[in-house]
Amino acid sequence: MATEIVTADVQYPGEGVTLRAHLARPKAEGRHPAVIVIQEWWGLNDHIKEVAGRFAREGYVGVAPDLYSRAGHKVTKDPNEAGQLMMGLDDTLALKDFDATVAYLQQQVFVNGQRIGVVGFCMGGTYTTLLAAHNKAITAASAFYGQIVYDQTSKAKPVSPLDAAKRITCPYLYIYGEADGWITMDHVGQLKKVLASHPKAEVKTYPNAPHAFFNDTRADVYRPEAAKDAWDRTLKLFAQHLRG
Fold first, then answer.
1. Fewest C-beta in 10 Å: which of 92, 127, 196, 240?
2. So which residues are the catalytic ones?
């Protein structure tokens, strides 16, 4: 029988900003493990909210913070606007917003604050890697086709995800489609080398799968078989390390 869930749009304090998020959780009482779901560059749209709901139906508290809380809570379908919104993010501030999200989860009576995972897609995959390296409260991480190497670092982007990955100690899964037109196989190879000594890290690739192949709202890129396998692997990762 499917797990009954409840959903809500929530707010909590960040540094100099009120952060918004979408929350989905099992209706049953008790303290549940949690998964932070990090958006693509489009914003906190219905697809990302639905993914949070999928985790809730699996018995997790799914929370999807709005990374554009500081930019007026924008949601777009225009790739040019999405690119501008993404480039307008400051990684240091974004990580503080994720820290605030972790703190919010740990304060909730329905969350097991010792069992918090993170999953993200595209831009969210980038931040999944950065957050797994940054916040030791993260128990497991699954990064879907996030950026691995920054073309150059800057005040807003001070640490390349590849360098951050060297500091990841929690179980970590990186998921990649080999037909990705944004992330290169060379960068994936560099990530594999960095993670070679990590006993609980894995890089899983899918032949002929393009960037964003998990997004079932986009018929041009969605690849159901690869998406299902990647989802199953992510659920297995979280079941192993967030339960109990």
1. 196
2. 122, 180, 211
